[in-house]
């Protein structure tokens, strides 16, 4: 009998407990070479190609596109080619297969200085090999290995995993896209242009089945659920079509009883949104949050000004005035690390979930530098090309939710940071002044802080310094 080998999903350098299958590059029965792309997996930070650990024949694939695979669970099975050179069992593949650090592992020495690069690159830690604790919306461990997405040739098309994922999302046929990258590589811009002009639409499969001969993920739930014994004889319509305010008996429709089955299907969280749920739950369990709110009076502003740049400047001024909130807090060891520099995590909302890229060295940037850096970070988030180093190491956070709606909020403080500033929707308020009343432009500000690490007095003085800076004419 052939010697079959099982390949277990390695830690993809993110420290996450699972990853989502985006696309299989092979099907059962295919032959594959060592290090050839096996599949694309989506984590909370990126879409990466997982290379084949063997040269041989694929005998089984675990999971369809869209399925979540736990780290350490079986991903694929192979029949290695006995005549081909295989990688030694102990040889590194570039991913981490070893056990994760236990919860009780020693905490890092917070006395070591963290230095952010001027270009918004990696955070270097003096005196120790870097162990990235960065995340999309919180902390997760990753290794020191730098993972670079390579353009793999699959189906005659050269493209990195992020480009393939975007093409799938926009329903673009990569084989019909004209590549503009070096060596015939299809770029993100090529896919976006093809989607915009409709030059390469993805044609539906006549059989409605995937390339591997398996049904699509959605097909698993296509059958209607069997009605429960206690279900009504005339169940409510499952779609908006045909719904009325009157029942078949001519009476007003009431809400369904608790025994009535829901018509929708549960959707499993994946990728960025899945990690966001975990991090928010951890933050809720670990932090003791307290929120202060007030309004910044912008009546003295001269001419048109960049509100986001002014917010960044005001946060920097407040951090210099009260360094206690520009800090990290270690709840296990009850230690606090105050930072001499200000790296601000900017919350960016996307359809895939929340990203928090770091605006490095905000304390030395002028308004033009702030705007250019934010524009770059947003573009990288939108096309999912942002490196992991940009999603870690911020010392304080900003959520500018007022761009959409809302005056005040209780933003979530994600450890190890101590504080987050929330900016609400700009309003025109009637303000009492000496001799009468005036209408002033005012910006609602919410400051949430971890009360274990900072006192109420420190938070109030921080908020006052922030409001005072925003009140300046320019």
UniProtKB/TrEMBL annotation:
The keyword Ribosomal protein does not apply. Residues 257-266 have a biased composition (Polar residues). Residues 4-79 form the Lipoyl-binding domain. Residues 158-195 form the Peripheral subunit-binding (PSBD) domain. It is an enzyme of class 2 (transferase). Its cofactor is (R)-lipoate. Residues 82-94 have a biased composition (Basic and acidic residues). InterPro entries: 2-oxoA_DH_lipoyl-BS (IPR003016), 2-oxoacid_DH_actylTfrase (IPR001078), 2-oxoacid_DH_E2_comp (IPR050743), Biotin_lipoyl (IPR000089), CAT-like_dom_sf (IPR023213), E3-bd_dom_sf (IPR036625), PSBD (IPR004167), Single_hybrid_motif (IPR011053). SUPFAM superfamilies: CoA-dependent acyltransferases, Peripheral subunit-binding domain of 2-oxo acid dehydrogenase complex, Single hybrid motif. GO terms for molecular function: acyltransferase activity. It comes from the Bacteria. Its EC number is 2.3.1.-. Residues 79-120, 197-244, 251-270 are annotated as: Disordered. Belongs to the 2-oxoacid dehydrogenase family. Forms a 24-polypeptide structural core with octahedral symmetry. This is Dihydrolipoamide acetyltransferase component of pyruvate dehydrogenase complex. It comes from Rhodanobacter ginsenosidimutans.
């Amino acid at each position: 009998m052939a010697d079959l080998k099982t390949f277990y999903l390695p830690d993809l350098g993110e420290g996450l407990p699972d990853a989502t299958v985006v696309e299989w590059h092979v099907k059962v029965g295919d032959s594959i070479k060592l290090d050839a792309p096996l599949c694309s997996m989506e984590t909370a930070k990126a879409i990466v190609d997982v290379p084949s650990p063997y040269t041989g024949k694929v005998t089984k694939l675990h999971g369809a596109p869209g399925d979540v695979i736990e780290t350490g669970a079986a991903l694929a099975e192979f029949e290695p080619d006995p005549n081909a050179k295989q990688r030694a069992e102990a040889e590194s593949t570039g991913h981490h297969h070893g056990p994760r650090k236990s919860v009780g592992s020693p905490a890092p020495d917070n006395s070591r200085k963290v230095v952010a690069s001027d270009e918004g690159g990696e955070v270097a830690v003096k005196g120790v090999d870097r162990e990235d604790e960065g995340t999309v919306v919180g902390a997760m461990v990753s290794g020191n290995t730098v993972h670079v997405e390579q353009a793999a040739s699959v189906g005659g098309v050269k493209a990195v995993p992020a480009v393939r994922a975007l093409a799938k999302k926009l329903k673009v046929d990569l084989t019909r896209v004209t590549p503009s990258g070096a060596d015939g590589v299809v770029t993100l811009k090529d896919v976006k242009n093809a989607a915009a002009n409709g030059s390469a639409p993805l044609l539906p499969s006549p059989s409605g089945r995937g390339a591997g001969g398996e049904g699509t993920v959605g097909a698993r739930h296509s059958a209607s659920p069997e009605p429960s014994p206690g279900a009504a004889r005339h169940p409510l319509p499952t779609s908006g079509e045909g719904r009325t305010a009157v029942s078949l008996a001519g009476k007003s429709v009431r809400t369904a009883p608790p025994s009535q089955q829901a018509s929708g299907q549960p959707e499993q969280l994946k990728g960025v949104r899945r990690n966001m749920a975990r991090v928010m739950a951890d933050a809720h369990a670990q932090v003791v949050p307290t929120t202060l709110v007030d309004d910044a009076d912008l009546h003295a502003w001269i001419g048109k000004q960049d509100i986001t740049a002014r917010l960044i400047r005001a946060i920097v001024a407040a951090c210099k005035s009260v360094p206690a909130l520009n800090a990290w807090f270690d709840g296990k060891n009850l230690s606090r690390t105050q930072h001499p520099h200000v790296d601000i995590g900017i919350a960016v909302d996307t359809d895939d979930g929340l990203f928090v890229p770091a605006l490095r060295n905000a304390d030395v940037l002028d308004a033009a530098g702030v705007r250019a850096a934010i524009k770059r970070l947003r573009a990288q988030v939108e096309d999912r090309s942002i490196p992991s180093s940009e999603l870690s190491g911020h010392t304080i956070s900003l959520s500018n939710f007022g761009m959409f709606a809302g005056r005040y909020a209780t933003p979530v403080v994600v450890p190890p940071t101590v504080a987050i500033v929330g900016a609400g929707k700009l309003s025109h308020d009637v303000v009492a002044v000496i001799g009468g009343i005036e209408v002033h432009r005012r910006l609602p500000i919410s400051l949430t802080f971890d009360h274990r690490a900072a006192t109420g007095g420190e938070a109030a003085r921080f908020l006052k310094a922030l409001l005072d800076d925003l009140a300046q004419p320019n």
